[in-house]
Amino acid sequence: MRSEAAAVRDRVGDEIKRQSRESTERIVGAMAVPLTQFLMQAHLHDSGTAEVKVDDVVEVGRRLMRVLRGAGIDQVGTIGAPEPFDPDRHDPLSTSQTPEPGRPVVVRVVGLSFQGRVLRKAGIEPHVPEES
Q1: pLDDT bucket at 116, cuts 50 / 70 / 90
Q2: In this structure, how many other beta carbons lie within 10 angstroms of the beta carbon of residue 34?
């Protein structure tokens, strides 16, 4: 009985590893083209053999982000956008003051989440209303 349970546990463990490997291979496979483009741009820049355009590098970043969104990674916040402070989603860029939850802040650096769980909080500053 004990050896049967161990065998089942081993089979389940092997299946989880296989599924995880396949999932990782799908993500890496989808990222392969933009990553190789980025590496080529880095080589051209470093070697000085060709001028690399900022627009091309930005487009590669956007393509990578599209792949990552398909894998469950998303952006936390939008740069320049005011929103209510949430300490679970926001990290003040200055340690001199931490806003109260719900107070208006402005996103200066986006964060990242995976399937809704925040991996890196968005960097924020207090929102200062424009004077009229």
Answers
A1: very high
A2: 18
